[in-house]
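#lab-general

N.A. 3:47 PM
ok so I finally got the sequence cleaned up, no stray characters, all 144 residues accounted for. can someone with queue access submit it? mine expired

B.Y. 3:52 PM
send it over

N.A. 3:53 PM
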Amino acid sequence: MFHRHSVAGRVSIGISSGLVVGVLAIVSLPLFGFPLFSMFGFGTLLMFVFMGILIGFLGLFSRHPLLNFSMPWWVRGLMVGFMLTLMYILLSYGSLVVIMQSALVSWMGFSSPFWVLLDGMTLGVIISALETRFAGEGEELPLT
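B.Y. 4:20 PM
back already:
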């Protein structure tokens, strides 16, 4: 995809994958009783795009700068997915309760909005894998 690995490539992959997932989330909102264009949907889109951008920039670090432990691509994806999704859950708890109580989700037995953490961590790992595979990782990555 990219002839040369770079930070810009990682960030562009993160933005595009976050946009795809965010638009799919916005399109599915009417199934849960939300309007197609709502602040909740726009916040969801922004959260997924920011997740991709943050994972892209964190691809520069193969070791944690303060705690000095190894951070392979899947650790970065899990950490960013967990932290951003936790913030998302705490800020939009009421809307997520409505989604979890809908007929499309409640039959699976998931009643707490905190189950969304698994989705966020999974998406973080997928975005990190795509960015690492197609645009590289490590301190030696050029910016462009």
